[in-house]
């Protein structure tokens, strides 16, 4: 396939649905790790067409959603300082902290700027040597290379007023944590194609071997996802547990090795707290000691900021796939995009936002997959 429209072709989607239904001999439980895949599944109504053959569980693959509340509060503290220009991707601005969000801080006079790359934030720092410029460095392995490059260049250029508030997380430890949970139901995973474009899929092979679970690297369009589901179901029916690559137009086993090398030079694995989930050992990326001068947590002594998650928000259960968003009592009532309790309701990759925006309040079957 050469053109994007082919990956959205209703006839191809329908044929893949038919193959999945014909292959599955009993109900199968799969998890898509990526929030972008979740939005495609919900927006296109793919779950409804899989009927009782496959239950898609939505995983913790939204980087905005899993950024812990205390890290959001640290961002709000920095953004409120008059000596700081706080920079971030736009999808972080409405993520609620304990009492506010970045958009409200900006409305009250804080200098909060949306950038499209951490290198844009570095340029702002160079243009304003009298101000501290902080970039909110969140995301999975997908965004890590660009964030690493900004820190590397800041050191090379001697830009002392630039720092990053790091909240990077990595996918394999999250999959392991899900599989180790006593109530785990997931039989196979769809791995995120953009993460694997950077990292390849070698990291997933030990997981497939150890847990006997199929993992299929999958793209983001409807045909991509349905083909990934078909490949995973076929493995389960054949008694195989391997890593397969559906997203061949972007991903190779070794990944992007120069990008990996840069990330490993700037970052190291650290324990990381996930919003609503808790701490997962060695699941995050933190700056190496040689780059400590660019660590906003150390530069501004933010370690004392600690926060508890709101009890009425069940984001953790949604992110772990324990419940669907509409099963949360707060969904669509006291938690809406206008007044969110948690990040999954406002993030562009959040499962709660997907269900709310596309009116998937309960399972029903209508129309054709497109």
Order of helices and strands: HEHHEHHEHEHEHEHEHHEHEHEEHHH
Secondary-structure-based class equals alpha/beta
Low-confidence stretches: 363-368
Radius of gyration: 21 Å
CATH class assignment: Alpha Beta
CATH architecture descriptor text: 3-Layer(aba) Sandwich
Instruction: Name the CATH superfamily classification.
Output: HypD, alpha/beta domain 2
How does this model look, in words?
With 370 residues, this protein is of the alpha/beta class. It has a single domain, classed as HypD, alpha/beta domain 2 (Rossmann fold, 3-Layer(aba) Sandwich). It has helices spanning 10-23, 35-43, 46-49, 63-66, 69-80, 102-107, 118-127, 144-157, 171-180, 193-199, 205-211, 222-238, 257-266, 296-299, 315-319, 351-357, and strands spanning 28-34, 54-61, 84-88, 112-114, 132-139, 162-169, 188-192, 215-218, 243-245, 267-274, 278-287. The strands form two sheets. Strands 4-3-5-6-11-10 form a six-stranded mixed sheet, sandwiched between helices. A hairpin with a 3-residue loop joins strand 10 (267-274) and strand 11. Helix 1 (10-23) packs parallel to helix 12 and helix 2 (35-43) runs parallel beside helix 16 (351-357). Residues 363-368 have low confidence and may be disordered.
């Amino acid at each position: 396939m050469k053109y994007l429209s082919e990956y959205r072709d209703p006839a191809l989607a329908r044929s893949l649905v038919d193959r999945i239904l014909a292959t599955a001999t009993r109900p199968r439980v799969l998890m898509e790790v990526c929030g972008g895949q979740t939005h495609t599944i919900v927006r296109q109504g793919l779950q409804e067409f899989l009927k009782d053959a496959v239950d898609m569980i939505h995983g913790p693959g939204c980087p905005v959603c899993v950024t812990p509340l205390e890290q959001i509060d640290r961002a709000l503290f920095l953004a409120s300082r008059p000596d700081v220009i706080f920079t971030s991707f736009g999808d972080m601005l409405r993520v609620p902290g304990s009492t506010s969000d970045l958009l409200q801080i900006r409305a009250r006079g804080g200098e909060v700027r949306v950038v499209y790359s951490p290198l844009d934030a570095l340029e702002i720092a160079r243009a304003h040597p009298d101000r501290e410029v902080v970039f909110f460095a969140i995301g999975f392995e997908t965004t890590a290379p660009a964030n690493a490059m900004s820190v590397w260049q800041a050191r090379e250029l001697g830009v002392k007023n630039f720092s990053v508030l790091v909240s990077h997380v990595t996918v394999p430890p999250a999959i392991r944590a899900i599989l180790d949970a006593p109530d785990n139901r997931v039989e196979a995973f769809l791995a995120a194609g953009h993460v694997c474009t950077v990292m390849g899929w070698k990291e997933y092979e030990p997981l497939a071997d150890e847990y006997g679970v199929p993992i299929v690297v999958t793209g983001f369009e409807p045909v991509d996802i349905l083909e990934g589901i078909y490949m995973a179901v076929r493995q389960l029916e054949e008694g195989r547990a391997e890593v397969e690559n559906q997203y061949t137009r972007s991903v190779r086993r070794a990944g992007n090795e120069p990008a990996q090398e840069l990330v490993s030079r700037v970052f190291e694995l650290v324990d990381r707290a996930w919003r609503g989930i808790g701490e997962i050992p060695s699941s995050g990326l933190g700056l190496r000691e040689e780059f400590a001068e660019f660590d906003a947590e150390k530069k501004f002594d933010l370690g004392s900021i600690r926060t508890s998650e709101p009890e009425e928000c069940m984001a953790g259960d949604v992110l772990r796939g324990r419940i669907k968003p509409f099963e949360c009592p707060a969904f669509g009532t006291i938690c809406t995009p206008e007044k969110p309790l948690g990040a999954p309701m406002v993030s562009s990759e959040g499962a709660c936002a997907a269900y709310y925006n596309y009116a998937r309040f309960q399972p029903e079957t209508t129309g054709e997959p497109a």
